[in-house]
Amino acid sequence: MAALLLILPILAVVLLNLPLWRPSARTALWIPVVLCVLQLAAVLFAPVIFPLSGALAMNYRIVGSDLSMDGLTRVMGIAIALVGIASALVARHAAVLDEVRVFRFVNLLLLALAGMNGVVLVRDLFALYVFIEVTSVSCFVLIVVNGRREALEGAFKYLVLSAVATALLLGGVALIFMVSGATTFAAAAAAVRDTTSNPLALAAVALFLAGLAIKAGLVPFHGWLPDAYGSSNGAVSVLLAGIVTKTTGVYTLIRLVDAVFGYTPPVRHVLLGAGLLSVLVGAVAALGQRDLKRMLAYSSVSQVGYIVLGLAAGPGLGFAGAVLHLFNHAVFKSLLFVNSAAVKRQAGTVDMDRLGGIATKMPVTGVTSIVGMLSTAGIPPFSGFWSKLLIVVALWKAGLPWAAAIAVLASVLTLAYFLQMQRRVFFGKPSAACDGLVEADPWALAPAVLLAGLTLALGLAMPWLFGTFFLPLGRLL
Amino acid sequence: MTAVTVVLVGLIALAALWTMQASILRSVLGLAVVSVLTTLLIFQMGAPLAGAFELSVCAGLITVVFASTVSMIRPAEPAAQGRRRLRQLRRFLFASGVLAAAAGVALFMHLHGIARLAPPPPGVAPTTQEVLWSARRLDLIGLLAIVLVGVFGVVVLFKEQPEKEDVS
Asked: Is A219 a domain residue?
């Protein structure tokens, strides 16, 4: 079944491009939606199809040693499907891409979904690299699919830094292969544990950490992220910000720290430094933006910093907090980018100085935006509160109270820049851009309401979910 | 070393020189040829696993997408192109020096046991077919996806299309 998550999107691309039958672009947009719904069902009901008992119920193998689906894979599979649905619906709402471009968007979205599914399913370093490349190159083409020059600049920065990250990751794989003679996670882990006697393995870990920091957009490797998010089409921004950097960068980092690198002091120090720097720099940079999408991009840098801080806090509570915030961030950041696409479509701009008071004309977009904002800032009872709380508590318990204090301080900064955004965009004095403004169509409202509802529901259900799912996940990873 | 190996190494060197041209398209073609010849050489030398890795990296197709972007940047003025050739030669010599130094360091570390390399696995070495269809089957699925992405990349970046304002 896990193999189907890889093969079906690729098969769909092949079928879509057969000369015998070619659906209209609007019909084609339903194909990724249907595949993502199937993926949600498959991932959610996998334990029913492949039942196992006891504490290891979340760690089971499906297809030999090639692909495996554990608790973390399931979390990512759900996030990929949710963001994929939101992205496809926003593309339909945007309605500004012509038929040909919508068709190309669908094909590339399907290939990106296949790539991300591959990243979360494989347990081999080289296969991981291959699927990271599939995702990255698909996204590069997706950024320029709207044909704008500024998108090309964003894509170019993304591609150049992505190429550097690729070279680093490939160098790491090569060193691991030299040392262990194999590229499976198990073989790599055995080789890396012997780092004191073999500097090549230590160099491999360093190369991987640097490459993944670029992919995740961690400071100081975050330069490509605001341009890529800001210049791309709304539907592509949702995909990039919602799940792509999470999968190729953050998920891979969590998986490799757990399964290959081990929680060693050097790894911990690197994660702690990169996490703190990202949390602070991202929040401060977001405060100074006037473009809504760029502000959200810097906010992403800051939130990814929280995830890395959770990882730095260590196994158990820290890992659980990191995975939970990874999922939460995928949901509420997708929501905020869906809203930014709606604002851009309806008002024609995302320049916050030219907006104001649009909540009266776009009430659903305004309310769902508040939900996303409160969750990002870590306000109860929304889901972001719980994950940030877990990370702060994990840092405290790990003997890092100063890091916990910085995380709380950055959360206050997050609230500050989001309140500023709300005042400038949704509330305050109505601007000239508001004249004749109407609410976005259902294609944009549906994913926004779905994601906002999920943010609230996750927050309310967290006391139950935490004990039954996320804490065992943190321990079993 | 067989005659085939010698010929392949010679062809790789020639294709590598071909990549030093001012035309980006010709350079990309040179890189693609280097990639294909290197894969053939690796398979021919009896290392199918390494060959599969080279095949999967698929540098040629990724480079096509990369070069597509680069090609949209305005080229240098003709007066500057003469100086560029000299710079290219210097870069080529520098890159060759770096590669030779890296090879020397690797050889030194290997000979002095500084970096412990994995011993060859016991038993019969896997054949090319076994590697491609059994051991690295997943990579082939990824390779298929990369080929499709490459095709769409070339279509999106090269195919002329009327400018249309995108407001999303």
From this structure: no
Q: Which of A127, A177, A198 has the CB atom closest to B142's CB atom?
A: A127
Nearest to A280 by CA among A305, A297, A313: A305
Q: How many CB atoms lie within 10 A of CB A400?
A: 21
Q: What residue in B sits closest to A237 (Cα-Cα)?
A: B168
Q: Is residue A460 part of a domain?
A: yes
Q: A59-63 and A67-70: which strand pairing?
A: antiparallel
Interface A-B: count of C-beta contacts within 8 A: 134
| B157 and A155 Cβ atoms separated by less than 8 Å | no
Q: Which two tokens stand for residue A378?
A: 């870590």
| Closest by Cβ to B167, choosing from A159, A199, A345 | A345
Domain containing residue A433:
277-477
In Å, how far are A202, A334, A403, A473, B20 from A271, measured between CA atoms? 15, 25, 12, 20, 40
Q: Is residue A406, in this structure, part of any structural domain at all?
A: yes
- Chain B residues whose CB is inside 8 A of the A339 CB are none
Of A19, A15, A54, A51, residue with least CA distance to A35: A15
Are the Cβ atoms of A178 and B56 closer than 8 angstroms?
no
Inter-chain touch A181–B120, beta carbons under 8 Å:
yes
Give the total number of structural domains in chain A.
1
* pLDDT tens, position by position, A385-441: 999 999 999 999 999 999 999 999 999 999 998 898 888 888 877 877 677 788 888
Are residues A6 and B141, on separate chains, in Cβ contact within 8 Å?
A: yes
Q: What is the ipTM of this complex?
A: 0.77
Which among A130, A144, A199 has CB closest to B156? Answer: A144
CB A373 within 8 A of CB A452: no
* Residue A396 located in a structural domain: yes
Query: What is this structure's pTM?
Result: 0.85
Dist CA A152 CA A345 (whole Å): 20
Counting DSSP H helices and E strands in chain B, the numbers are 7, 0
**What's the pLDDT tens digit per position in A114-171?**
999 999 999 999 889 989 988 988 888 888 877 666 667 777 778 788 888 988 998 8
Which run of H or of E encompasses A403?
Answer: helix A401-421
